[in-house]
Specification:
Number of helices: 0
Shape: elongated
Order of helices and strands: EEEEEE
Structural class: mainly beta
Helix content: under 10%
């Protein structure tokens, strides 16, 4: 889990995304949002390559 939200977009192939409770199979152009501090697991269960685009904000630098 991280402190920022993340959005995963499957560009090609098939990826299974799980938060430890629910599991979803994403295919080309499917996307999902993972909230801050939410655990996640991404897995390619197929024999084919998969490509994923990760969209997330850059964390602000902490002042010295």
């Amino acid at each position: 889990a991280s402190t920022v939200e993340k959005i995963y977009v499957v560009l090609d192939g098939e990826v299974t995304v799980s938060n430890g409770v629910d599991q979803y199979k994403l295919r080309k152009w499917d996307s999902c949002r993972v909230a801050p501090h939410e655990g996640r697991r991404l897995q390619n269960e197929s024999q084919q390559p998969a490509s994923i685009l990760l969209v997330m904000p850059v964390e602000a630098a902490k002042p010295p």
